[in-house]
Design a protein that fits this description.
It is a single chain. This protein is an alpha+beta fold. The protein folds into 2 domains: 2-150, Fructose-1,6-Bisphosphatase, Chain A, domain 1 (2-Layer Sandwich), CATH 3.30.540; 159-277, 3-Layer(aba) Sandwich (D-Maltodextrin-Binding Protein, domain 2). It is 29% helix and 28% strand. It has 6 helices and 15 strands. It has helices at residues 2-21, 39-52, 171-182, 193-202, 223-236, 267-278; strands spanning 26-30, 36-38, 58-63, 70-71, 78-86, 97-105, 113-121, 125-130, 134-139, 145-150, 159-162, 186-187, 206-210, 240-242, 262-265. The structure holds 6-O-phosphono-alpha-D-fructofuranose. 6-O-phosphono-alpha-D-fructofuranose binds next to loops. 6-O-phosphono-alpha-D-fructofuranose binds at residues 86-87, 163-164, 191-193, 220.
Length: 280
């Protein structure tokens, strides 16, 4: 596992440079989910694949930017599912973006996840590693990722990150969101999953929701590359991650690009989601 983390650190430093100085224009390609790919999406994916090819313990990689899995080392042990540059369309307006990695063994069900890592490319470049616990690292001026602290969520937070187009929300979801704001929670939502969840983790808690909507009944966020890794992080940090009724890590995707409604947060806020959704 250590060699995978080192490979991710190397890729992160290369992607950081690409973000700062490369062309942010669109390519002529679309990914499996139908998103038009930025040249940076493709460049970041290539960087990660290059670094993972040097790691013998990685058997297979599954990228959000590719339709099918890629076999790297027949005798490898791990499957790595990743989103090379999540929220890349925010680079044009100079907002933070990220890379997300799930390290699986045997399969790509939530229960197959052994570890999760994400990188935030923001005013500072940071990495969060979730294995037994959750630890924050920051890229220092010498080019090394240095440990900053361990991350633990409080029982209750103050942030409410409300995703998806509101006109597509179910009435019960809107009732839940309005009640949370009525209790004084603050809206913090950039449209980038990585910085939005990173903020909740570092500020001690709250709720991030990307629900089922009338136009996207199965949600938007991808299980293998985005949802499972962050569900793992939130659970290891002492919070919870559900689809409205079930733990996200209990889900079994039929296809690597499957999506799910998702809620990540502190225990109290997730309890409010369960109560409200149980009535539906
Ligand atoms: P919406 C970015 O495109 C992304 O995949 C996630 O990073 C983010 O949480 C979500 O989509 C934002 O979607 O519909 O709220 O703009």
């Amino acid at each position: 596992m250590k060699e995978i983390i080192k490979a991710i650190e190397k890729a992160a430093k290369r992607i950081k440079k690409a973000i700062e100085f490369s062309d942010t224009g669109y390519s002529e390609h679309t990914n499996k989910t139908g998103d038009v790919q930025l040249k940076l999406d493709i460049a970041s994916d290539l960087i990660i694949e290059e670094e993972f090819k040097k790691v013998a313990s990685i058997k297979t990689i599954i990228s959000e930017e590719k339709e099918e899995a890629t076999l790297l080392h027949e005798s490898g042990r791990y499957i790595v599912g990743y989103d090379p540059l999540d929220g890349s369309s925010l680079i044009d307006v100079n907002l933070s973006v990220g890379s997300i990695f799930g390290i699986y063994e045997q399969g790509i069900n939530g229960s197959d996840l052994l570890g999760a890592i994400y990188i935030v490319y923001g005013p500072r470049t940071e990495m969060v590693v979730a294995l037994e616990g959750v630890t924050l690292y920051r890229l220092d001026e010498s080019g090394e990722f240095i440990k900053v602290k361990d991350i633990k969520l409080n029982q209750k937070g103050k942030i409410n990150a409300t995703g998806a187009t509101q006109k597509g929300w179910a009435a019960y979801h809107k009732k839940l969101v309005d009640a949370i704001f009525a209790d004084g929670y603050r809206l913090r939502y950039s449209g980038g999953m990585v910085p939005d969840l990173h903020q909740i983790l570092l500020k001690g808690g709250g709720l991030f929701s990307y629900p089922s909507t009338s136009d996207a009944p199965k949600g938007k966020l991808r299980l293998v590359f985005e949802v499972f890794p962050f569900a793992f992080v939130f659970e290891k940090a002492g919070g919870r991650a559900i689809d409205g009724k079930k733990n996200l890590l209990s889900l079994q995707p039929q296809h690597p690009h499957d999506t799910s409604p998702c809620f990540f947060g502190s225990n109290e806020e997730i309890g409010r989601v369960l109560d409200e959704y149980a009535r539906e």
